[in-house]
Amino acid sequence: MSAPQRLTLRSRMVIIGIVGLLVTLGVGGFALVKVLEVTLMNSADAAAGNTAQDVKDLIDSDYELPDPIPVGNSAIVQVLAPDGGIMRVSPGADRLVPVLRPEQIERAVQSAEPITVKADQSTYEGKLRVHVTEVNGYTILVAVPLEDMQHSVHYFKIGLMVMVASMVVLLGLATWYVVGMSLRPVESLRKGAEEVRGAERLPLPKGSDEIHRLAVTLNSMLDRLEHARARQRAFVADAAHELRSPLANMRTELEVAARIGPTPDLLEDLLSDVDRLGRLTDDLLLLAKSDDPDRLRRRSERIDVGDMLTAITQRYTGGRVPVEFTDAESPLWVDGDVDGLRRAIGNLIDNAVRHAVSEVTVSLHPDGTGVRISVCDDGEGIPEDDRDRVFERFTRLDDARSRDKGGTGLGLPIVRELVGRHKGSVTLRDARPGARRPGLRADVWLPGV
């Protein structure tokens, strides 16, 4: 684990905030210092230019220049004769050595811009900002010492650094406090998560911010997990019970055969129980796969629904009750897993045959943007209040199902699962409303092609 990862989230957020603040203030402070330097330099240039203009005006007026030349600021003025000698100076200015060498004067005249020089050739110290003007063969040198400006910038830098340091400390402390207050609900959620047991849930922070929504989402996730665990426990318990019944029957039959000898019906009874175990394990395996989307891959192909239903209903020829199929007037097609749809429709027909009195009918019709498959029987039907419950796993109704009729309690749940995977729906209603035996009608709707 790297060093930053070992820090707490609060520390990392504060460090990021301080670094961001330092970068922002550093860039802003650097820009501010540069602006101050340029502003002071422009002020010095303006002062030197004004002084040079004043001296130029005196020379142009044909009045004799006073000696010393009066100036109203700290500027140093030297007026050079055409031969390069110093004619007039301001108070305190050097009368022997000009502030610029001849080559520097020539460069300044050519550029028409003030130049900055280090006063190492005269009695002055520090840097000078020199403005050069020529008039009537005379050269006017006006130098402004930059020492005061440099001191001002230096003190400004010190004050800026002190201010930045104070702001970083104060804002760092404030950020530490604010981040801690913001993360307090997260810490409460963490402690609550450690203490969650069974039906307990995480505490909901006040307000409606992201932390509150996170807590609501986590509680919703815990509800789903609890529901999934409850379903898993019920499924395992029901599966164990369903598996135990045929095993108990087989054990009893074998124990009786061991004591009194095999009966003529022993093999038939054992095969019946084995078939029931096979159907139950197949159904359990299918439902287990349907609960794992990563393991379930629906093979999609174009299916002629009429041909599929014809093949399915032909399997029931010669059965306990006839199964009649009425096809649509024109071919109807769907995209899907043909094995899954055969299993779903087959389960509905098996259920209808198991409870029908005299007949089962299967019909196919177009319905909006899809197709509708109807499976009807003339049995006792299912009460309206129980029609949703029969789609729950291992559900049996006392007046409609029994283990003796071969049901596993998984047929209709498998139908809903398989049809749902095809983005379809299945509904139950009376086949003959108002009749003494209303029967049952199962309608399967699938999206068409």
TrEMBL record:
InterPro entries: HAMP_dom, HATPase_C_sf, HATPase_dom, His_kinase_dom, HisK_dim/P_dom, HisK_dim/P_sf, Sig_transdc_His_kin-like_C, TCS_sensor_his_kinase. It catalyses: ATP + protein L-histidine = ADP + protein N-phospho-L-histidine. Residues 238-449 form the Histidine kinase domain. Residues 180-230 form the HAMP domain. The keyword Transmembrane helix applies. Gene3D superfamilies: 1.10.287.130, Histidine kinase-like ATPase, C-terminal domain. Keywords: Kinase, Membrane, Phosphoprotein, Transferase, Transmembrane, Transmembrane helix, Two-component regulatory system. Its EC number is 2.7.13.3. Pfam families: HAMP, HATPase_c, HisKA. It is found in: Cell membrane. One of its GO terms (molecular function) is phosphorelay sensor kinase activity. One of its GO terms (cellular component) is plasma membrane. The chain crosses the membrane at residues 12-33, 155-179. It comes from the Bacteria. PANTHER family: SENSOR HISTIDINE KINASE TRCS, SENSOR HISTIDINE KINASE YKOH. This is histidine kinase. It comes from Phytomonospora endophytica.
